[in-house]
Amino acid sequence: MEPTNPQVAPPAQAVNSHQAVTSQELKLKGFKAYEVDTALNPSLSYRRRDFYKVALVTSHCTVHYADRSIELNGTCLMFANPHIPYSIELHDPFLKGYSCLFTEAYMRENDRSESLQQSPLFKVGGTPIFHLSEEQMVYARGIFQKILAEQSTEYLYKGDLIRTYLQLLIHEALRMQPTESFVQHKNASSRITSLFQELLERQFPVESPNQAMTLKTAQDYAQQLGMHVNHLNRAVKEVTGKPTSVHIAERVIGEAKALLHHTSWSTAEVAYSLGFEYPTYFNIFFKKHTGTTPLTFRRDT
């Protein structure tokens, strides 16, 4: 469906003018909720923050999420990861809904569970958007309204209560997630693979053309994890069916696509930021894994 009045803007701008959201405030409190009812600035911006996001979106729009585009028509629950760039193309006059930003430290304050990056809702390649039924919409909207009401109170334990509300939203989405998406560590190989995958994700996002990846090979990751590379390769291959090097390459390609799509960096700058010494090496690598060159990919997206 062709938008009649497309507008693109970073989601972090979509707040009411009287509710400015600052990184400092988030780091101090760990969370910030707000109601969204605003027009979007029609400029595309590439920004990633240090926080996670859960949003209830009721407007017709398209979310450009990393190298994917997902149309939202109806009421949707959206989950955003600070490691994945995204922007919103609005097809309605206004973006409406609710949003809550939070840090991983806040969500794990009283919890020893695994990183949110391993959650089916936030991990790279996961399902970040859920279309809700009328009943699910009423439930989710009620939770957001409770969060909004609670954050302005002086209740001593409101942080714990809001964390519980966020967990309810997460669990509501997890109930809609295919069972095979859940991760359970059954043995040492599974635990090692999880550690490797989390370390891999920590290398991203690449937010500056002057920032170069430091871990590039399976040997680098094995050394960082304090084990022999053969041990790491066996564990990862046993659990995922793919070698460690393939996981690294797929993640680098995913980030390369995101940078080419969301930034105006030159291919040389993208190449350097992803650890390639020369742009030619990056071009060869990219074409090998995608069948096209970086410039052609950028032009066609």
From TrEMBL:
Family annotation (PROSITE patterns): HTH_ARAC_FAMILY_2
Name under which the protein is recorded: AraC family transcriptional regulator
Q: Domain HTH araC/xylS-type spans what residues?
A: 190-300
Tell me the InterPro entries matching this sequence: Homeodomain-like_sf (IPR009057), HTH_AraC (IPR018060)
What molecular functions are annotated in GO for this chain?
A: DNA-binding transcription factor activity; sequence-specific DNA binding
Gene3D superfamilies per the UniProt record, alphabetical = Homeodomain-like
Keyword list, A-Z: DNA-binding, Transcription, Transcription regulation
| Higher taxonomy | Bacteria, Pseudomonadati, Bacteroidota, Cytophagia, Cytophagales
Pfam families in the record: HTH_18
